[in-house]
Each structure stands twice: as structure tokens, then as C-alpha cells.
């Protein structure tokens, strides 16, 4: 039975369950798992150090573990769950998009973006998405299945390893920020996303030891799940994909708005901000002649002013065959000015990755 506040969006039947992986398990569960294999519980700590501390899944590297035990541990706790189909790079190779093939052939994407002062990784939490937003390439594909905790975490582990090994120009670097803004609605895969956040932020060697404050979780506005997320006591940032300040248009752009209206979503977001101490990010894709009118900017400013909030305007990354496209530069500037007139902090997102099929879900769709 679902817990209070837990959502039950349907996942297509027939999906195979991903094999168990070390990253799916809590530290205590890892001890139990190695004990079931006839190994001493401390082997769990050794495996965790190899995976979360050295980013290694190759038993040949596990020299502190008896050779006779390595393959059995690998098969039971570090099976191959996903492999790189291809990397595509742009922006002088500082933006790298990765297409992954999961154990069952499912395709998902992640993006690593290196800036002068930080490195951000955008990760997927579902294969496809069931929210049906019409301007989104992932939404057009529909939902295939939820990702497991390990499938989410492994995207990050591989990104951290690539940075350490200098695969992204600029020399070795550390990952600064993780954004759950890739394929899928994170809060519709609540338990696995929460598990991934725990693995990402658990102190080494039990996890990657990254800061909760460097994690942003995006949602289209699943109010019960936002409320539940607030109860977790985390310091992650919440990003609300709003895209329209009025219910009439948002019902069309973000269909889940027919269940939870704009003010309900924002009320839940303000509660999260109050309890977490973090300001909320409002994500707003600017779409030409659809949601970029001056009066909508004014309405948005009135809804947001006085709250702990920041608006992230996103010039739409159009997908092939779509009627949706980015706003005119003059309309974008006017939208920014209207928000600033209400004292609402606003930035326009740096557009990266258009030449590598950068819209979320676009590369996976092309591969299919």
C-alpha cells in the first residue's frame, strides 16, 4: 500500500526489474547482502570504498579482497546495469551528453556541464516521462519505466570518475551540482530518487559524500510528494517547473495542473522553502507567443514577490517537428524586466547542447 502522500502513477506492465546493485542498498543492507554470500560483513565497506571512493567496478582493482571472492561479489552486488552508447560533446567539449543503454535495452540520458566556476550534472530519474507536457521531447515519448536507485546513482559515479580522470577538458575537477532535471518526473519515482539522494550524500565510503545543498530536485508540481519531501528534513533545492502563472494555460502546458492548481503548487513550494531554509527555483520555459506575454510576466511577478524564490527562465530548446519554439529576444528581455519590477530575482539559463540534440529525451528518441 502507498504511504500517505505517495503517488501511484502507473508504470507500463512487463518492465523487467533491474538487478540488485550495491548502490540500491543502505550500508546495513550491504552488510546483510555480503553475509548472505558467506562473506564477512566488513567486505561491504571494502566494496563501498571501491565503488563510491574509487569509482571502480572492475574486480581486478579490488586487491584488498581475496581473488576467490571477487567475482561472486561482483555478480551479486555490482552487476552491469548500464553501458554507454555514445558521448556527444559541444562547447569546446565542456558539455558532454551521454546516452546510456540500461540492462534491459532502455535508453536514458545524462549531461555533464563544466563552467569556469563549477561543474553541474543533469541526470535522469525515469526512462521517458508520464507527465505529458506537450513541448518536452521526453514527455512526447511517454513513460517506459522508473529507474532504480543504482541506475540513477551510476550516472553520477561515472560523471565523477570522468572528471577525476580528466575526460572533460580543463583538467581534473570535482562535481559541484547535481540537478534531477533529465528524463522523468523525479517525485513520481519518489522512493528511488530519495534513495539516490541518500547514496549521493552519505559520507564516504558509504556514499559519494556530496552536499545536499548542491542537489536540485525538479518537479512539475506533485503537491503530495512535495509535502512528503519537505518531511524528509533535507537541504536540497526544490525546482518547480511552472511554465505558466495562470491555470488556463498551465492546464495545457503541464497537464498535471488539472489535479493541483498553480496556487496549490506554490503553497507547497513555499512550505518546503520555509522548512528547508532553501529558496525555491521556478523553472519557466519561454515559448514564443504562448507563455511569454507581458501580462503573464506581471502575473508571475505578483504571485512570487515576497517569497524565498528565484526564477530561472529557459529559452526553449525546440525539438524536430514541434510547433513550440523559443521566444523572441525582445520578449525575453521584457519578461525579465517585468519580474525585476516586482523585486523577483531572475536569470536566463545559459543555453547549451542544442547542436548535440540537447533537449532532454531528444538523443534517446533519435537512437530509437
From TrEMBL:
PROSITE patterns: RADICAL_SAM (PS51918). Residues 21-38 have a biased composition (Basic and acidic residues). Binds 1 [4Fe-4S] cluster. The cluster is coordinated with 3 cysteines and an exchangeable S-adenosyl-L-methionine. The active site is at residues 109, 360. Residues 115-355 form the Radical SAM core domain. Residues 1-38 are annotated as: Disordered. GO terms for biological process: methylation. It is found in: Cytoplasm. One of its GO terms (molecular function) is methyltransferase activity. Pfam families: Radical_SAM, RlmN_N. Its cofactor is [4Fe-4S] cluster. S-adenosyl-L-methionine binds at residues 184-185, 218, 241-243, 317. Its EC number is 2.1.1.192. It is an enzyme of class 2 (transferase). CDD domains: Radical_SAM (cd01335). The keyword Methyltransferase applies. InterPro entries: Aldolase_TIM, Elp3/MiaA/NifB-like_rSAM, Methyltransferase_A, RlmN_N, RNA_MTrfase_RlmN, rRNA_lsu_MTrfase_RlmN/Cfr, rSAM, rSAM_sf. Reaction proceeds by a ping-pong mechanism involving intermediate methylation of a conserved cysteine residue. HAMAP family: RNA_methyltr_RlmN. Belongs to the radical SAM superfamily. RlmN family. Specifically methylates position 2 of adenine 2503 in 23S rRNA and position 2 of adenine 37 in tRNAs. This is Probable dual-specificity RNA methyltransferase RlmN. It comes from Streptomyces polyrhachis. The gene is rlmN.
Amino acid at each position: 500500500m502507498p504511504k500517505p502522500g505517495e503517488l501511484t502513477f502507473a508504470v507500463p506492465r512487463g518492465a523487467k526489474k533491474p538487478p540488485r546493485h550495491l548502490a540500491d542498498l543502505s550500508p546495513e543492507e550491504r552488510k546483510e547482502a555480503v553475509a548472505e554470500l558467506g562473506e564477512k560483513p566488513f567486505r561491504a565497506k571494502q566494496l563501498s570504498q571501491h565503488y563510491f571512493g574509487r569509482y571502480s567496478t572492475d574486480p581486478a582493482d579490488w586487491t584488498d579482497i581475496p581473488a576467490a571472492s571477487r567475482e561472486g561479489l561482483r555478480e551479486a552486488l555490482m552487476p552491469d546495469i548500464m553501458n554507454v552508447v555514445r558521448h556527444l560533446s559541444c562547447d569546446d567539449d565542456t558539455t558532454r551528453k551521454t546516452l546510456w543503454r540500461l540492462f534491459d535495452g532502455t535508453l536514458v540520458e545524462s549531461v555533464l556541464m563544466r563552467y569556469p566556476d563549477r561543474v553541474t550534472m543533469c541526470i535522469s530519474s525515469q526512462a521517458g516521462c508520464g507527465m505529458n507536457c506537450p513541448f518536452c521531447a521526453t514527455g512526447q515519448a511517454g513513460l517506459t519505466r522508473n529507474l532504480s536507485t543504482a541506475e540513477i546513482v551510476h550516472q553520477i559515479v561515472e560523471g565523477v570518475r570522468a572528471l577525476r580522470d580528466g575526460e572533460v577538458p580543463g583538467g581534473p575537477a570535482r562535481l559541484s551540482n547535481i540537478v534531477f532535471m533529465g528524463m522523468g518526473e523525479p517525485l513520481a519515482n519518489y522512493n528511488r530518487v530519495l534513495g539516490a539522494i541518500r547514496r549521493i550524500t552519505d559520507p564516504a565510503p558509504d556514499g559519494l559524500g556530496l552536499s545536499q545543498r548542491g542537489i536540485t530536485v525538479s518537479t512539475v508540481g506533485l503537491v503530495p510528494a512535495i509535502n512528503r519531501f519537505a518531511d524528509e528534513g533535507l537541504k536540497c533545492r526544490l525546482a518547480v517547473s511552472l511554465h505558466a502563472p495562470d491555470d488556463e494555460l498551465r492546464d495545457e502546458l503541464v497537464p498535471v495542473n488539472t489535479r493541483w492548481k498553480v496556487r496549490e503548487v506554490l503553497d507547497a513550494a513555499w512550505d518546503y522553502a520555509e522548512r528547508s531554509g532553501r529558496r525555491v527555483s521556478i523553472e519557466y520555459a519561454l515559448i514564443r507567443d504562448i507563455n511569454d506575454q507581458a501580462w503573464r510576466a506581471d502575473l508571475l511577478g505578483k504571485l512570487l514577490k515576497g517569497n524565498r524564490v528565484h526564477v530561472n527562465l529557459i529559452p526553449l530548446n525546440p525539438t524536430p517537428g514541434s510547433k513550440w519554439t523559443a521566444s523572441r529576444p525582445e520578449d525575453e528581455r521584457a519578461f525579465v524586466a517585468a519580474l525585476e519590477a516586482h523585486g523577483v530575482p531572475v536569470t536566463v539559463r545559459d543555453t547549451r547542447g542544442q547542436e548535440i540534440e540537447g533537449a532532454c529525451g531528444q538523443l534517446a528518441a533519435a537512437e530509437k
